[in-house]
Amino acid sequence: MAALLLRDLLRIALPGAAAGVLLCVILSRLVASSLYGVRPSDPISFAAALLLVGAIAAAASFLPVWRTVRINPAAILRDE
To answer: pTM of this prediction?
Structure first.
């Protein structure tokens, strides 16, 4: 049950992260003159940002997954 819910949540988060990285690569050229000591397409910065967004998405999905796992499916079916 938890795996199904996590897979659905990842289906939402992964395209958003991919679109964010693509937009970041495109827009990083605009701020290249403001950056000091970092290339506009620094892979370490992109990886750190993706890890941070992934950790936030995992933390945000923890409570719904935890609540779903605790529910007894038989009790829900009887309450119809």
So the answer is: 0.65
